[in-house]
Amino acid sequence: MSRSRTASILHRLRRCAPALAGIVLLVSSAAAQSADPPDVPGGEELKKLIPDITAACAMVRGNSSIWPYRSFPYGPLGVEARKASAEDTEKIRGFHLGLAAAACGIPLEKVTAMFHCGPDCSRNRREHLVKQLPELRAAISAFEKAPGLRLLSIWLPRGELRVNDLFVMGGQAREAIPSARFGLVPSGSWKDWKSLEEYLASIHVPDKAVSDLTERMYGAGLSALIRDKSDTRAVGVGVGDNESGLLFLHAGAPAPRLGGIRWDGAKYSVVEEAGKGVWYYETN
Fold it and tell me: Which of 15, 61, 106, 223 is a plausible cystine mate for 72, CB 3.0–4.6 Å?
């Protein structure tokens, strides 16, 4: 993509979507590597993600309908910023989302359209999860019985997944190494493993525990299970910092509050009690 074309798209972004202002769309790796670092926190570190983003977008460019199922917050087109402030995290994730959408050829108006689709969508997301609460409690219990698991994420195509920071994609098992300054995951730096099984053995988690959990997740329509200090999250759908799911509070943990900021910078826009110690939430 030429610099003039990049500037044109950037101008359109700033005019049409203030929430994504500052996103620089660098699609081709060659153009990206020769460009100046983007004027966002972690710009230099974000540039290193371009080859991996481009690779993860390959099947999306051929079938844009798969975008919502590969752009989940903890999937191949998501990013974490573990060492950044809440403010910087918002900027980093916004930039990264725009970068991924451009690389995948997703029009601006469709980037978050599946999530921001009206009040009925939020209600349907809640009902879908709450009606499965007994099954989800069982899944959370199984997840918490495997202490080596901190995060388990799935997306499309079926069979690709993430265990903690290990991504299994395209026949490869690679562990993301957090970036030095902002703790980006992925960061463009990887540790190769022979297989998922080799990694699971290193964290003392049986293969069957992961395969059983992923089947439960596919059946319930979950994209991720995440263990935090105060709760375990069952994430339904999301994109960027937009996320919906259920919080299963740990003993003595405070309930989430509307407008509260999670440790990773996500802000609760919906908080509703769904059962004893369980809260439905949305962030954006």
Answer: 223
